[in-house]
Amino acid sequence: MMSAKPALFGHVPSFSFEFFPPKTPEGASALYDTVMKLRVFRPSFVSVTYGAGGGSRELTRSVVQDIQESGIPTVPHLTCVGHTEQELADILEGYVHAGARAVLALRGDPPRNRPYDPGRDAFRHASDLVRFIRSWEEQRGLPFRLIIGVAGFPEGHPDTRNRIREMDYLKAKLDEGADYICTQLFFDNHAFFDYRDRCRLLGIDVPIIAGIMPVTSISSMNRMAELSAGTNFPARLLKAMLRAGGDKASIERIGINYASNQCGELLDAEVDGIHFYTLNRSRATLEIYRNLGINNYFDVDRIHMLSNLYKS
Fold first, then answer.
1. What are the start-end ranges of the H helices in the chain?
2. pTM of the model
């Protein structure tokens, strides 16, 4: 497979954030405030999630347009679950009209609180969705090529026990035309490094973006366990949480420090990018940036220049 560097990754490493559509006007205002606070770091892009079964697709489109108009490249999610081909085409049309030039193609999760008939889904696999997007943009005659991201699972997809077969599924998504991989959140960098090595052994040479979500409370940790079935919570992190004795401020500080150390190690290992799952809050991400000493891309570029100098 040929190496690819999509337009979203003009700078390496890339830094990006993920948000979910708000449910209330107050939530929308808070989200916009968060985006503006994080904008000072000049993110490569921000992604906007998509409710199970497409339940929040109109909200997603609205958020995409608002963020895109602020000058930040925006990557909306698109899922197979709950959609016919015509619905997927309509959603893509809406995203493009809102200014999006990239999408994250996912299989998606079935809705929990309403009836769901998998028989009406146009596609069962993300690779099929990637192929459909490439076909749609060709038929549509777009004057640009959409950048397509897909999900990666450093610690294994919960529905696939065969890890070798799982990598074949990943490669299928890239062979259908995906441009980069954004991983599920993880707390063990060794799992990510092993995953990256296995990708390279298969000839997958696109950017692999590491998904990071700092633990800021016990409730947020429980939510992470729900959102990312199969994610390992290392004993070192759990022991630190126990030492906090339930103190909320201490737990938040431990989570931010742990994520900061994770990111520092990833940067030292020349990660292609880091994607922060923000839960629509800016505080933890801002603190991680401060801990890393990153003010803007010029600082990162300078670090790489120094690194190359020391290697020579």
1. 25-39, 57-69, 85-97, 126-140, 163-175, 189-201, 218-227, 235-243, 248-268, 283-292, 297-311
2. 0.88
